[in-house]
Amino acid sequence: MTERAPKRTQRSSHLPPKRTPKVTKSLSPKRRRTLADPPVRPVNSLRNSNVRPLPAHIRPRECRCKKGECPIYTSRQEHSKGRRFYCCPFNRTPQDCRFFEWIDDADDPIIELKFQLENHKETMTKRIDDCSSLQQSIAWVESFHELAKS
């Protein structure tokens, strides 16, 4: 008869001890999660948007699914940056309510001006970065030139 090796119940001394995740009391109930709770991620239309305070002339809208009011989001996607829209608060997966409606007119001159301003900001930031890079290159060349003289 062959003898079986005894099962190892202890961890090797060279391995760190197993750690179990701890939930601290300082976290709010919304922030507490267990390993079994997957993070809730919104659908693509909400990933590139944010919620802003509601202007007085725009009223909240009841969603078609009748589960509550639709928040107003502001798009951050390149093709629609700055435009506001209604979206169902329960729009988390493709099976959920798919209500979506633009609030702003796409041809609104303010939206167009915001888009142009963002483009100018990006251009200026790039130019500032380029200038900084050129200054560093000039300083390197000057220091190299000084070393070559001596």
UniProtKB/TrEMBL annotation:
Presence of keyword S-adenosyl-L-methionine: no
InterPro entries: Znf_GRF
Matches recorded under Pfam families: Zn_ribbon_GRF
Domain of life: Eukaryota
Region Disordered, residue ranges: 1-53
Domain annotation GRF-type: ranges: 63-106
Any GO MF annotation of the entry: zinc ion binding
Keywords noted in UniProt: Metal-binding, Zinc, Zinc-finger
Regions crossing the membrane: none
Name the record gives this protein: GRF-type domain-containing protein
Comp. bias regions, Basic residues: 7-33
Organism taxonomic ancestry: Eukaryota, Viridiplantae, Streptophyta, Embryophyta, Tracheophyta
Claim: Zinc-finger is one of the keywords in the record: yes
